[in-house]
Design goal:
This protein has a single domain, classed as Alpha-Beta Barrel (TIM Barrel). Helix content is 31%, strand content 18%. Helix 4 links the parallel strand 9 and strand 10. The longest helix has 19 residues. The radius of gyration is 17 Å and the shape is globular.
Length: 293
């Protein structure tokens, strides 16, 4: 009998916002257009030739201490905008203060590769590690998030619904290609159309997962090993298909933190939305049993 894993109350909350959040639904939030990504002011570090295309590199000073942490919070963001009737749409102001909080409190954002090595090999991480992820591939991920993360020097990951690329309020392949060359962001899969995978027959699951892999390879030259399961919805069949497609790590929407030895195909994440205050944010960075809002 195959297991069925689901994100519970958190996934239900995300599904409630699906009519607004694109693949999770999507209208463009109102507000003045942000500055283009090219206007980011931070100095760009030299590229590391050993880092594959579409993967983020890290640039840390020699004084950063490494150890195997008790746990890591994988932060889950979606859209950035001015909508006020859906808490999953983060305001640009809130995103900025959260990144300032990470910087000012000594946190070190890590890459998906570092997270995978920690989970599967108990590899050491920099002090106070955190992993920053965005789902779906909204245009604001290019116009707002991309320059902001370059400003702070933070590696991050975007899970792209490949079938939505180029649609209204979504990033284009040209924008993603620029990001793939930057070594500041990891570009990964969120399937082709963002379905509930466990509801599909295996051949359709394969089309969703393999099709996204093929699109990332065709348009960006990326051999992608990471996926975010839409709605946090998966089972043993989905896991097996993902493994066969070259996926080495999968994140869900199940609430919680990641630990060394966690099963790499059902990693938990920490939901972040506009209702997350500074005290909530601090708690979610450090505690497994943080309050669910």
């Amino acid at each position: 009998m195959k297991r069925f894993f689901y994100a519970g109350s958190l996934a239900a909350a995300l599904a409630a916002g699906a009519c607004l959040l694109g693949g999770c639904g999507g209208e463009e939030p109102a507000g003045a257009p942000p500055a283009p990504a090219a206007e980011a002011a931070a100095e760009t570090p030299a590229k590391d030739p050993s880092v594959p295309r579409g993967q983020a590199a890290v640039h840390r000073g020699p004084d950063v201490k490494y150890s195997v942490p008790e746990g890591v919070s994988v932060l889950m963001y979606h859209m950035i905008g001015s909508e006020t009737d859906n808490s999953a749409i983060m305001s640009a102001e809130n995103l900025r203060w959260q990144m300032e909080y990470l910087r000012d409190h000594g946190y070190h954002p890590i890459t998906m590769q570092e997270l995978a090595d920690y989970v599967t090999k108990e590899a050491p991480l920099p002090s106070k590690p955190v992993c920053i992820t965005f789902d779906d591939g909204y245009e604001d991920n290019y116009t707002i998030v991309y320059p902001l993360m370059k400003e702070f020097g933070f590696p991050w990951t975007v899970f792209v619904i490949t079938g939505s690329v180029g649609q209204p309020n979504r990033m284009t392949w040209d924008q993603l290609a620029e990001m793939a060359d930057s070594q500041t962001v990891t570009i990964a899969s969120h399937t082709v159309t963002h379905p509930r995978l466990h509801n599909l027959p295996p051949d359709e699951v394969k089309r969703e997962i393999v099709g996204a892999q093929q699109a990332l390879k065709e348009h960006l030259g990326i051999d992608n090993p990471w996926i975010a399961y839409p709605y946090g919805d998966y089972d043993e069949t989905v896991d097996a298909i993902a493994k066969a497609a070259g996926i080495r790590l999968a994140v869900t929407t199940d609430a919680g933190r990641v630990h060394a030895g966690s099963y790499p195909y059902e990693l938990k994440r920490v939901w972040i939305g506009n209702e997350v205050t500074e005290s909530h944010y601090a708690e979610r960075l450090t505690q497994d049993d943080y309050a669910i809002i």
